[in-house]
């Protein structure tokens, strides 16, 4: 929206320019760190993903009832361990960033792990906190999704979308709570108090906003069916 379309009292509150020199310097340094992280980790993740797909193809070619060979088991364990190392390295890197930026990575990852291991008796992770030992219980394919998600987050921070990601992540809990409520019909329009005019139902707007944000979170979080 152009500033000319905003009333004068509110227009004065709009940020001016691209921030002061210290803000620009901090964003530039964040971008450089994220670029270095992607350049280091992306080739490793891509290589492991290719090896994982090759292993999966080998197992399919052997038939449904044939168990994995010792060589395949060894390769799967190697891939699993390497994904754990990569994820651990990225978590350590994000852990040195601003607390809110770190939360924008860790909390979606924690939700993913908690959902994947919901039936586990000794789950240490919650929807807010990630317990690293829980990652050892995930299969290689799910670790790949988690690593790829973290790389997407690094790319979003590198491209200057950190504020957008934080805005979505901070509001997600309320949006998800709304979406988890029992489905019900919400009227789009309601009468004003004097019963003379129609106006948009605030509850309908809330549900619409929740739906949009849920869609956005599905695009940027790891999912079971990714």
SSE topology:
Layout: H1 8-11, H2 21-62, H3 70-95, H4 99-116, H5 140-158, H6 162-180, E1 189-191, E2 198-200, H7 202-220
Question: Which tags fit this structure?
Answer:
226 residues, mainly alpha, two-stranded antiparallel ribbon, 7 helices, 3% strand, extended
Structure described in brief:
65% of the residues lie in helices and 3% in strands. By secondary structure, the protein is mainly alpha-helical.
**Fraction of residues in helix:** 55-70%
Average pLDDT, rounded to a whole number, is: 77
Number of E-type strands? 2
SSE series: HHHHHHEEH
Largest sheet: 2 strands, antiparallel
β-sheet strand percentage = under 5%
- List unreliable stretches of 5+ residues: 214-219
Shape: extended
Q: How do the strands line up in the largest sheet?
A: 1-2
Question: How would you classify the helix and strand content by structural class?
Answer: mainly alpha
Cα-based radius of gyration, to the nearest Å: 23 Å
| Spatial gap, N to C terminus | 34 Å
Structural account:
- The protein is an all-alpha fold and 226 residues long.
- Helices cover 65% and strands 3% of the residues.
- The chain contains 7 helices and 2 strands; from the N terminus they run H-H-H-H-H-H-E-E-H.
- The chain has helices spanning 8-11, 21-62, 70-95, 99-116, 140-158, 162-180, 202-220, and strands at residues 189-191, 198-200.
- A two-stranded antiparallel ribbon has the order 1-2.
- The longest helix is centred in the first third of the chain and has 42 residues, at 21-62.
- The chain is extended.
- The model is unreliable at 214-219 (pLDDT under 50).
């Amino acid at each position: 929206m152009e500033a000319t379309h905003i009333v004068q009292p509110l227009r004065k509150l709009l940020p001016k320019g691209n921030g002061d020199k210290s803000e620009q310097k901090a964003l530039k340094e964040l971008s450089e760190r994220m670029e270095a992280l992607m350049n280091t980790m992306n080739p490793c993740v891509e290589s492991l993903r290719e090896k994982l797909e090759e292993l999966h193809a080998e197992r399919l070619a052997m038939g449904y009832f044939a168990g994995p060979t010792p060589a395949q088991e060894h390769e799967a364990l190697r891939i699993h361990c390497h994904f754990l190392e990569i994820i651990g390295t990225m978590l350590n890197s994000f852990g040195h960033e601003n607390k809110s930026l770190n939360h924008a990575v860790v909390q979606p990852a924690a939700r993913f792990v908690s959902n994947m291991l919901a039936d586990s008796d000794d789950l240490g992770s919650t929807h807010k906190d990630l317990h690293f030992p829980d990652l050892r219980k995930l299969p290689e394919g799910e670790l790949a999704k988690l690593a790829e998600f973290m790389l997407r987050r690094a790319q979003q921070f590198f491209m200057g979308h950190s504020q957008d990601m934080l805005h979505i992540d901070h509001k997600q809990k309320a949006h998800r709570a709304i979406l988890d409520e029992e489905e019900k019909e919400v009227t789009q329009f309601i009468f004003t108090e004097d019963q003379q005019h129609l106006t948009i139902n605030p509850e309908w707007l809330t549900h619409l906003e929740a739906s949009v944000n849920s869609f956005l979170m599905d695009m940027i979080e790891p999912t079971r069916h990714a």
